[in-house]
Design a protein that fits this description.
The complex is a heterotrimer. Chain A is 67% helix and 9% strand. Chain A has a five-stranded mixed β-sheet. In chain A, helix 8 packs antiparallel against helix 10. The two termini of chain A are 28 Å apart. The longest helix of chain B has 16 residues. In chain B, a hairpin with a 2-residue loop joins strand 4 and strand 5. By secondary structure, chain B is of the alpha/beta class. In chain C, helix 6 links the parallel strand 8 and strand 9. Chain C is built from eleven helices and 15 strands. In chain C, 34% of the residues lie in helices and 26% in strands. The chains are: A alpha/beta, B alpha/beta, C alpha/beta. Chains in contact: A-C, B-C.
Amino acid sequence: MKEFSAFVRKEFLHIFRDTRTLLVLIGLPTALIVLFGFAISTEIRNVNVGLFSKSPDVFLSRLMEKIDQSAYFTYVADFPSETAVDEAMRRGEVDAVLMFDDDFSSKMFSEDGAEVSVVVDATNPNNASMEVMYLSGIVSEYFKDDIMKAVSLRMPGGMASMQAGGGLEPNVRMLYNPQLKSSYNFVPGIMGLILMLICSLMTSVSIVREKETGSMEVLLVSPVRPINIVLAKMIPYFVIACVVLLNILFLTIFVLKVPVAGSFFWMILVSVIYIILSLGIGMLVSSLVKTQIIATLICGMIFLVPVMMFSGMLYPLESMPAPLQWLAQIIPAKWFIEAMRKIMIEGVPVRYVTTEILIMTGMAVVIFAAAVAKFRDKLD
Amino acid sequence: MKSGHVIEVEHLTKKFGDFTAVDDISFDVRRGEIFGFLGANGAGKTTAMRMLTGLSFPTSGKGIVAGFDVWTQSELIKKHIGYMSQKFSLYGDLTVNDNLELFAGIYGVPRHEAASRIDELLGRLSLSSEKKSLVRDLPQGWKQKLAFSVSIIHHPEIVFLDEPTGGVDPAARRQFWELIYEAVDEGITAFVTTHYMDEAEYCDRITMMVDGHVEALDSPARLKEKYGASSIAEVFDILARGAVRSE
Amino acid sequence: MDSIVIDSLKKSYRKNQPPAVDIGGILTISKGELFGIIGPDGAGKTTLFRMLATLISPDEGTAILESLDILRDYREIRTILGYMPGKFSLYSDLSVRENLDFFASVFGKDVESSYGLIEDIYCRLKPFEKRKAGNLSGGMKQKLALCCSLIHSPSILFLDEPTTGVDPSSRRELWETLARLKASGMTIVVSTAYMDEAGRCDRVGMMKAGRFLAVDSPEDIISKFSRRLAAVRSDDMFRLLKDLRCMADVEKCYTFGDTHHVTLKKDAGIDAASMASILESEFGHTGVYVREIKASLEDCYMNLEDK
């Protein structure tokens, strides 16, 4: 036991001597969270709005003028077809488009009522929902007050038919993020990335460094059980990972002011399982490779890059081809991020994440078993 | 600079903060000699050599290497010297030929001359058959000989050898020294550091550095005579014993 | 009493390649012996050390260290062994004292209980206790590394080229320490590229291509050397080397400090005086000096190489 604590002490010394790396480990998640937090502004401004209607209509041009006058929106273009709308939105020239029925004016006064569709680019879900809210506000106000006033003045009968009919039916369509997933989804993503970085990359590099410098030879030729050398390496990184975890949670709640919905106990438990799983990966990698550069590459390319690709942080998983979606199933971080998202953002009870917890536990057991089996207390 | 000198050093000093690594050294190296540069670990050899090879600036003093000033012409110095260290020899993952072409290019050997020089060099080392082998598969002794030949591929005026034979067995060390002799025979000046005192005997003149000073500079025979010693190893002991700087 | 018994150890790294180590027969090293291994790079010295230190398993054969088998009892062996690998570097970000404390606790000891053994080396390091190991010079690093491998009072000590890149004074200090350790009954096996160091060993094994070509005390190796040897000097040493190699009676000629050493052919009738006159008259050398000499260990090594 004395030997073991000497090892743990030594590892902590290594880590604290290397202040730069330590700062990166603690500072990186802080910076990421704060930056992402600022990027998600809850205020909307300079939203480009377009109009799609097959026939020119004086009602509509007046509506668009009114929209253009508001502080939030700029009326940019008329679109002749749905494809044109789609293209402009893809190019980012327009953020929201109002789409009106063919003969909007006449339908409005008919029995069935008229429809206006609000199509929004929901890449940024927060902004999208705000835009929809504001736009439909302006539109319904316009029809309710301005038009009705004008109509009732000119043809009093019209009022009755309007009230009898369906009136205006706003129909909202979100593009590019149909479920309007919360933008706070990046928080679990960053946790998945940083915890994996600390636990697998840092652990494996620090074990492999001893092989490279030759100190592993000396340690192996000592009465210490070699497996303890490796376990002692994990403890400091486990501690750092926990500190980072608490740091992220703290920032999320107090700086980003994310309404964390779920249970703290389960959030921490899921994270600890993931941390242990990542440590196992680090140990497995370190027993397979001989140089720090290879350890870095393996951890980086096989474990870290997929976290970004498949965690839904950058691209929604649902829009990927099937083979990639299958591949995502074996990425540990995917399950962690999903579980955290459910607990943290959606606030669902833990029974909805049992699958994720079981899969991660299973992965941890398998990886640790493989790492211990692969671990050699000799050089060859 | 006198015509017979390849290096002229006057009052060269290098300080790192309070610590004076090289303390006011002055010496000349004559054209075509083997100049041994000895001293205990930490006596300031490496620091002095870095200044002479244009890798670092002195704190004060004058230095002229191959006709160029260490203060103002360090880039020109680098072009006109060769350098070989035991720590870095050649790229192990490249073939012998790749390495030679690379270094011929780095040292500015004209393209049309490079191929013939490489062939000549390999022929002299009897390594022509290994042209396509990876350097890492060669025995250590061959690697060092190859590294030395590479360092003089551009026919420099002077070649700096920093502990070129560390960790090599006596037979391989001798083969290496014969290469140095050969290069010197062709007019190249050799500036060598070593921890092997028998190798010091191969030098025309040797410098002993102690605590950043040049403590002695003469031919091996005269140094032995002066200190009443039977070998350079004894001279080294006598001089190093006076060292106060504990590494 | 035998401390180490090596029994036909063999190890190959790759198929279709000659084995890195292939020791036929039995080699014993007795308790308290200082055993030196010399040989060119790639002779298998490091592989042999690693096998004996239980770091790699031999393909064939075995070795017994203090009655413990390197295959069966490797855990016990690791408690009685001190091993300093060739490329061993300490933890450069830890201080001198932290390194020492760490290695002491790895072996379940504290520095004080084993201090006696390392005192004479460590007293030189003491002023730098707080300095980071990475900022020590080569000789100091070597001393610290030796302290760390001695901290658990091992009964057997393996040193793989401990003096490479170390200056002559530090080398001598190291060998004085080894002599003291040997006197305390420790068995020491050390590989080196310095022949003067080999001369300080009780016995020397000359290793090449994985085998021991000769194992004997330095005195016996020298006395068994049967060739006639001459030391030659002239004013043009480089030309002298080439000219000597052209002479009919010369089998081998190599540089040796301020002279060249010449091994004469078995049936050569030439003597020093006639050799000098040939060099002067036929080759035009000046300042010629020729003297028949007794072989040194290095001469034996140089001539062994060719066999």
